[in-house]
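Protein entry
_____________
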Amino acid sequence: MKSSHLLLAAVPFAILDIWYTGIFLIWTMKISAVTYLILAGLLPIIFHYSYTIQKKLLFLNFVQWPLKTNFSDPESVGLEGARNFYLHTDQQVKIGAWQILPRSLLNNSIPATDEAYQELLTNSKHPVFLYLHGNSGNRASSHRVELYKLFQDLDYHIICFDYRSYGDSDVVELSEMGVVMDSKYVLEWVLKKVNGTVPVFVWGHSLGTGVSTHVLALLAAENIQPTGLILEAPFNNVADEITEHPFALIFKHLPWFHWIIVEPFYKNNLRFESDKHIGKIECPIMILHAEDDGVIPLSLAEKLYQAAMNSSGNDTDRIQMIKINSSYGLGHKYICRYKELPGIIKTFVAKTYGNLVG
């Protein structure tokens, strides 16, 4: 009898438990539905109509790393023989930059003054590399510093800088033409400084490949070009890069994806159409891309390479692409650690400059 009473007493609690479980599941489903509506509906609509959000996501200039960098002291990030300086563009934008000396010029007899460093650049006997970085961070970011050191060990001069609103450059509204004009000014300044006495190479990484191809296309219209262009981890255009980016996997299957996400960039002139610009560039071009790049798929670099080949008449002597096996684990940022890279760069420099003077 006692067990029967206990069983009957437990029945209401069992019913309540089922009821509460049902309520919990309903609320969970409602929260999930609301979350999905926000992610798949409200946020994309806000994104579509917000030029500010589009720029922030493309340029990521608000991601400042390393933090609290003392740009006036390049030694604080491990660089030897480097000076900090500023250029003021014809658009009145102050650009923060570093000049890093070749390894053979690192000695105590060189005064650490702007005048001495500028004279070394003007009278340089070493190839000069102008580095255009990708989005986020600044010219002091660790993977960039690694590459500067590689250039330095190869005995090259290096100029690196931050676009407007990056690093300690002036905070000015970002746009594709804004960063392109900043970079064009710096490249023209370098070319005037060396005055044709040594080769000048432009090295762009990630978003910097979109900037550099646009810059060189503009200069080509003025019959000005550097000695060579190296594109590290490039994409062909912003539309394809957005579509293939890992963050797009949540939305790209939805029918409104292209209209909501991709088209606004083009309407707001955030295009970085390297596949169109590259056909106007006449100097030799080398593309470097890691097969395991998780930010910019190898396929986009291959599309850019094909566009370059199509416009050059399949000139494999002027256009080359090097794919780095995924087994090295270099991803998007660390091609600088590829053991074959120093030899690849030296060969490109020697061949390119040899053809130029020959």
The two ends are 109 Å apart (CA to CA). Residues 2-49 form the longest helix (48 residues).
